[in-house]
Structure formats: C-alpha cells, structure tokens
Design goal:
There is one protein chain. This protein is of the alpha+beta class and 305 residues long. Helices cover 30% and strands 25% of the residues. The strands form 2 sheets. It has a 7-stranded mixed β-sheet, with helices on both faces. It has a 4-stranded antiparallel β-sheet with strand order 6-7-8-9, sandwiched between helices. β7 and β8 form a beta hairpin. α1 packs across α6. It is globular, with a radius of gyration of 20 Å. The C terminus is likely disordered.
C-alpha cells in the first residue's frame, strides 16, 4: 500500500517549479485561476508520474496520455494541431494507444480554442470547477472541546513516524486505481519534501493511529485544500472540521485570504460547504483524444489522472 517506485526526489524535477514562496494571490484574480489549475491538476499528475514528466516543448506532458500545457511560444489552433500530430508520431514504436487527455481553461491552453481542440481530434468529456472559502467572511468552525481529551492534532512531514499512517489513510479514503496506489507513497513524499504540502493529522491518543487528516498545498500564491477525510470508525465526531480549523489558522498565518478546493462527490461537497466553501470559482473543461475507431483503453478508465 505504501511502497515506493524508485526514490522520491527532494527537489523539484526538471521543469516543475511550484513557486513555494510566491506571495498570496487575490481569490478573484486571473492568476489565481492558473495557480489553482497547476496546484490541483499539474502537481497531482507530475508527482504520481515523476519518471515520465517532460517539460516540453511542444507540450509539458505525462507519459503518452496527458498533456498539461502547450509550451510552444507561438501556440494557436494551427500550431496545436501540428504539435499534437508530431507528439503522437514521436511515441516509441509499439507503444499501446491510450486516450490522451487535457484540461482546457483557467489559463491552460489559453491560445487554443474549442474549435482548435476539435480539429486536432479531441472531444469534450466533462467539466469541473473549484470552490473557495474567503477568510474575510466569518467562518463557523469548531474548537477542540472534548476531542482534545482523546485526540492530538499535529503536523506531519515525510520524515515523521506518522507519515506512513497518513499515506495509508489517504489510500483508504479514495477509490484510487491500483497503479495510482502503487505510486502514492512516492508522490506524497515528493510533494512534502519540496515544501508545498502541509499535512495536519489527528492522532488517537489511545491507539496512536491517524484518525483524520487535512492536506493543504501552498504554491504559486494559492492555498489549495488537496485532501481531507476521516477514517470510517472515527467519523461523525467533528474531527475533520477541527483539523480544518487548525489548517485555516495556518493559512492565515502565512498571509492567505482564503482557500480553494474541489468537491469530488456529494459527501465532500456537503462537508466543504459546511466549512465555508461556498463561492464557485472558475470552470474548466476536460478533453479527450480517442483512437480513430473511438474505442478507449480499459486500463485508463476511472483513472483520477
């Protein structure tokens, strides 16, 4: 569950610059949209697939299945189509075809239109948006109360004894495919070691287990709530909200005026709305390029990346 594939670099891989110390951005600024997309989508993909990330040109990409951005300085609809053709043609001989995916909007592929994507053989496959919480608006968050008698909240890092337990909790909370789980430990060690991801955990004083966690990614001037959840046996005690309150204080201490996150299901949406995430941020569109016969590789269905 927590095995490594190779070792995690302790500095950003070439071409991956998270800008850990960038000053906080205003929640409604165009730069914030782009920062969120990179914190959420780019970092997730890069950290899971460190060995196949390339910074380009013509594209920053993951393996042969994910385009992150068009790095051609003269990018437009025509150059995008040409670069896609060249990029696909450059795949090693015998490479199995898998659908090529990208996110469009909020600063990603800004010079390529929907018509340009369609001409290059992509079709829209879904939309998404992020939600924000504004710290200038009073938030109703719990205090420790009686929880502090049974649990301790602390920060954990990649060199800490609780980090493997944090990884195991994350693996249990989300329906990750097996291939993703095999890389999760290394990805979390990598993002922690380069200083972007701050993890707060609730420790059961009696069992010394990690009962709940909140992870906030501080990079590019955006505080992104990357994950949060509670082990099933500890739910409905207010643990997640208590840790979130601690994370909010940490974000305020760092000078941030709010956070952004994505609600991947209805339970997550209700939880984050109860914590004050009520403002809809920008929207992006996911696009996919299939084989010419329109079939999809079963190996990639359901992949979070």
């Amino acid at each position: 569950m927590t095995s490594h594939i190779g070792s995690a670099p302790t500095t950003p891989v070439p071409g991956h610059y998270p800008s850990v110390h960038a000053p906080p951005l205003a929640l409604d600024s165009p730069d914030y949209h782009r920062a969120f997309m990179e914190n959420c989508h780019f970092d997730e993909a890069i950290s899971i697939h460190l060995e196949t990330f390339t910074a380009g040109p013509p594209f920053s990409s993951i393996s042969t299945t994910r385009l992150l951005d068009h790095t051609n300085p003269c990018s437009n609809d025509q150059t995008f189509e040409q670069d896609v053709q060249h990029w696909i043609a450059s795949r090693p001989v015998g490479t199995e075809w898998k659908p090529v995916r990208l996110h469009h909007g909020l600063g990603c592929f800004p010079n390529v239109t929907h018509d340009g994507l369609a001409t290059a053989g992509f079709r829209p496959s879904g939309t998404g948006h992020y939600i924000t919480t504004d710290f200038s608006v009073p938030l109703t968050l719990p205090t420790a109360g009686s929880l502090s008698d049974a649990f301790t909240i602390r920060e954990t890092t990649s060199s800490d004894v609780y980090f493997p337990k944090l990884i195991a909790l994350q693996a249990s909370l989300y329906p990750y495919p097996a291939a993703y789980l095999a890389r999760l430990s290394r990805a979390m060690h990598y993002m922690s070691s380069i200083g972007t991801d701050v993890h707060h955990v609730a420790i059961d004083r009696e069992t010394d287990e990690v009962a709940a966690e909140i992870t906030v990614r501080y990079a590019r001037g955006c505080a992104y709530l990357q994950s949060g959840g509670t082990a099933e046996r500890y739910r409905r005690k207010g643990l997640c909200k208590w840790i979130f309150a601690v994370a909010v204080e940490e974000a305020r201490r760092r000078g941030f005026g709010g956070m952004a996150t994505v609600a991947h299901d209805e339970r997550a949406r209700l939880c984050w709305e109860s914590c004050g995430f009520t403002t809809k941020g920008g929207e992006w569109t996911e696009w996919i390029k299939e084989k010419e016969d329109g079939s999809l590789s079963e190996a990639t269905l359901g992949s979070p990346l």
